[in-house]
Amino acid sequence: MLLCVTASHKTASFELLERLSRTPDDVASTVVDAASCVQGAVVLATCNRFEAYVEMDEPVTAAGAIGVEAVLEAVESATGISTAELDGAYEVHSGRRVAEHLFSVASGLESVVSGEGEIAGQVRRALKAARKEGTTSPELERLFQRASQAQRKVKNVTALGRAGRSLVRLALELADSRIADWSAERVLLVGTGAYAAVTLATLRERGAVDISVYSPSGRAEKFAAKHGIRPVAAADYARTAGHSSLLITCTTATEPVLTPAHLQAPAGLAAAGCPVGSHSQLVIDLGMPRNVDPAVASLEGVALLDLETISLHAPLEELQATDAARTVVREAADTFHVVGSRQSVTPSVIALRSHIFALLDSEIERARARGDEDGKVEQALRHLTGVLLHTPTARAHELAASGRADDFAAALATLYGIEPVQPAQSSFDDDAATA
Question: Global pTM?
Fold first, then answer.
């Protein structure tokens, strides 16, 4: 049984999500080690959500409750956030609802800005991290691989990607109302990761030319050389921050990298002038956990735009594109469920066919011993066997598709005394998996 415990911007405060985003990499392994019935776990932690996908051994009584408890205890152990604090801030999906939820997440349908593309890469990296930690399971592998396929189909056949906008683009669109001339802005970019690259490209689209970069982790020079901007050394960070009219932070640092002390305006700044409407400085914090000390907003002449504020201005979804995307997601989830159900009944079908073919081989040997020299008896027996197996095989798949695979297994045990052998678990390769 698949299970998902999810906390997102729809269910939890940004303050709580900020704390959850600091979740260590070993949470998935902690979940797997919590109980023998936990078959695998993949954790997806982003700036707007924390989700744990878990595969449980379904025959276990109260498997769902055990799985949720394992996730909550792992989170508390890793982050110090108690179960009581999480109460009411998360949702639980199970069974066939899990696939539709993850496919929606991967496609950007559950993001602050509908259709944003960053989440797809985060979903892929979550699976990769789980593989590295050895916490995946065959069903979780299949689930996450199909999520990537669903995301690509949504992108290719709907207008959602064009309708949705990334957080970076939305943040700069909100900044437009404060900035008269982007080419006159003195921009300081704090961070050198994927978000920083997207931010830089978007800034240049808007006409910004005076851009420098600072990296708390010391990567500024390499990033600056690659993108043709100025690096800022640690010793010059505070001075540069104080002289910049637009500051954008997007690092993975767990503590604030911009504080009021960095923005104490040095002498001469006012004379230089910063065309940011009525504000001398605009700070955009794209970090989660937040990169900017909230006290920055209390400084005179400083405006702070953070993720929580940005989310309040997310545009209305283009309903037609969103509806089309959700249709693709539902169809993909239905296919995932049907294929998975058929796979779950496969051991029973194999057991039945093996039993019948063993009987067939025995009867063919008897026919040959009695002189079936032309093979006509063998041919007739093989044809009859195929006919007899067709209906129960088709019925098995029908039962599996309706969630009744166990009924077929029980019938085999009752009628023939057959106990299907479950195949050993193994990981699927991204390209080789076909289910």
Answer: 0.61
